[in-house]
Amino acid sequence: MAGPETSAHYERLAGSYDQNWTYNDAFLDWMAGEITGVLALTSDDRIADVGCGTGLYTGRILNRVRPAGPILCIDPSEGMLSQLPPDPLLLPVHASAEQLAKGATDSRGDHAAPVPRGSLDALVIKEAVHHVATGDRPWVITGLTDLLRPAGRFLVVMLPTRISYPLFDRALRRFEELQPDPEDIAGHMRAAGLTVDLSYRDFPLEIPKDRYLQMVRNRYMSLLAMFDDDEIAAGVDEIDRRHPEPILSFPDRFAFVLGTRKAAAT
Ligand SMILES: C[S@@+](CC[C@H](N)C(=O)[O-])C[C@H]1O[C@@H](n2cnc3c(N)ncnc32)[C@H](O)[C@@H]1O
User: Fold this and answer.
1) Which residues in the chain belong to E strands, given as ranges?
2) Cβ distance 153 to 40 under 8 Å?
3) Position 262 confidence tier, pLDDT thresholds 50, 70, 90
4) Ligand 1 centroid – CA 77 distance (Å)
5) Closest atom of ligand 1 relative to the 80 alpha carbon
6) Using one digit for the tens of pLDDT, what is the confidence trace for 234-256?
7) With contact defined as beta carbons under 8 Å apart, do 224 and 3 qualify?
8) CA 132 to ligand 1 center in whole angstroms
């Protein structure tokens, strides 16, 4: 999903986004640790989080790395950016991945800050690359690669093409139709000149069923915004019937696509 529905979805979701996850510190810490480790972040790195949302993970990455300069928190949703933890080391930039790749940032409000080419050591996009239209992904990934310094690292964290979430069938089928293949993202990164490593990492989630059903009612995934209120209510009933157990257990599996830019010739 890309375009105005995506923006409207995140403006609506912004205020409740963190509540869906903050009960699960172990998961949030695990994810922040994986991102920090895979990107091999150090305090000298100039870091950007593209599609950072509310900074749910960015804040945790900040606490682990304590970089000398601010982490650029880039997102096209004002609503999501307005939830960033107040910290001078989290610098909001109101822009989409496409604008960033073109070298443009939106100058509305006071969020605009240019991200010059060759200025970043590390860039992460977590669960946002699917919002870039399929046909735009090659040039957007090339444009974002250009923001990296020599030896810079570019990490895409995304769901695989199939998930084992306890969702209703129509939602799972829709997900499979829409979700980009991490192999294709890896291919775009290679075409942009990066050396690529693709790995899959799992976290065993346990969520009380009532909480999960509420997350589905809240349309915690943008995918769920495609279903109307009646369809969501029917989907919640389907999940409830299929899962008599009070705690839902399932692996949350993510693809980590890491691209590394060549080091400068010595
Ligand atoms: C599922 S949320 C992920 C937020 C955050 N990375 C996280 O994992 O909590 C997706 C985010 O991508 C942002 N987004 C939507 N379209 C985008 C685009 N074209 N470029 C960059 N970010 C986009 C949304 O505003 C939203 O904050």
Assistant:
1) 47-50, 71-75, 90-94, 120-126, 148-158, 195-208, 247-260
2) yes
3) very high
4) 8
5) 27
6) 999 999 999 999 999 999 999 99
7) no
8) 10
CA angle 201/202/205 to nearest 5° reads: 155
Euclidean distance between CA atoms 184 and 190, whole angstroms: 10
State whether the beta carbon of 53 lies less than 6 angstroms from ligand 1: yes
Domain range summary for the chain, segments of one domain joined by +: 4-206+253-260
How far apart are the C-alpha atoms of 239 and 234, rounded to whole Å? 9
159-191: pLDDT as tens digits: 999 999 999 999 999 999 999 999 999 999 999
Q: Which residue out of 72, 98, 127 has the highest number of ligand 1 atoms within 8 Å of its CB and is therefore the one to mutate?
A: 127
State both tokens at 116.
Answer: 């010059």
Our mutation pick for probing the ligand 1 site, out of 16, 54, 80, 252, counting the most ligand atoms within 8 A of Cβ, is: 80
148: three-class secondary structure by DSSP: strand
Q: How far, in Å, from the CA of 127 to the mean position of ligand 1?
A: 7
- How far is the C-alpha of 227 from the C-alpha of 96, rounded, in Å? 25
SS3 123: strand
> What separation in Å is there between the alpha carbon of 22 and the centre of ligand 1?
18
Look at the domain 4-206+253-260 and name its fold. Answer: Rossmann fold (3.40.50)
